[in-house]
Amino acid sequence: MSGHSKWATIKHAKGLADAKRGKIFTKFIKEISIAARMGGGDPNSNPRLRTVIIKARAANMPKDNIERAIKKGTGEDGGAAYEEYLYEGYAPGGVAVMVEVLSDNKNRAAADVKNIFAKNGGNLGTSGSVSRMFQRKGTIELDAEKVNEDEVMEVALEAGADDIVNEDGIITVTTTPDAFSGVAEALQEKGFETLSADVGMVPDAYTPVDKDTASKVQRLIDRLEDNDDVQNVYHTAEYPDDFEPEA
């Protein structure tokens, strides 16, 4: 299984876990709100908002929740003003980690992230220390047993996708951030059901770790993702094929 497929699979599995805890919708609400605040509430003229809405729909977020989040961002519905922050550091084993935060309290968020790194064998780095190891890309995942790979490939490439990979039962469509919305919408219009749709940071290279280190890395990732201010966590760890994260 390739590094990119591992990244996509881990992100998808973690996304499902977040949904069970009821946290993923809260994260989308914040992301939609800040996108609407920065670029307006019309997704047709706000590419960032349109992208987040596509991601939220892929996670089965109700339409009413999306509309309320937009109103909160445009000021029609009040609510806290969120700001974006980025933290970079290292997990055990020299694994690079990027943490995207949306918070209404910078001091609280910074202290929490620093504390989580320190208590779980990691350490924060300076700005730019690990971000150079990642590229922002769009990824769309589909269940290979429920869709026709050739049809997906035809639609995705025509809409501007960069690559399509079928591994371990998951078809992963990769795009540039600018092409993501168009490709995701083209697949939706053709009736393809997506497992996930996201624009995130994908590592240029991965750091292989053994099972013991993988457990430590995943523990740090879990603690970060459990924090209400943390929006996304990206890392370069390549876990052993037989590694099973703790439930």
From TrEMBL:
What is any one GO biological process for this UniProt entry? regulation of DNA-templated transcription
PANTHER family the UniProt entry points to:
TRANSCRIPTIONAL REGULATORY PROTEIN YEBC-RELATED, TRANSLATIONAL ACTIVATOR OF CYTOCHROME C OXIDASE 1
Q: What's the source species for this entry?
A: Treponema bryantii
Extract the GO molecular function terms from the UniProt entry: DNA binding
- Keywords attached to this entry: Cytoplasm, DNA-binding, Transcription, Transcription regulation
Q: What is this protein called?
A: Probable transcriptional regulatory protein SAMN04487977_101211
Q: Which residues form the TACO1/YebC-like N-terminal domain?
A: 5-76
* TM regions (residue ranges): none
Q: Where in the cell is it found?
A: Cytoplasm
Q: Domain TACO1/YebC-like second and third spans what residues?
A: 82-236
List GO terms (cellular component aspect).
Answer: cytosol
Name the HAMAP family for this protein. Transcrip_reg_TACO1 (MF_00693)
**Does the record's keyword annotation contain DNA-binding?**
yes
Q: Which family does it belong to?
A: Belongs to the TACO1 family.
Q: Name one Pfam family in it.
A: Transcrip_reg
Q: Which NCBIfam families match?
A: PRK00110.1, PRK12378.1, YebC/PmpR family DNA-binding transcriptional regulator
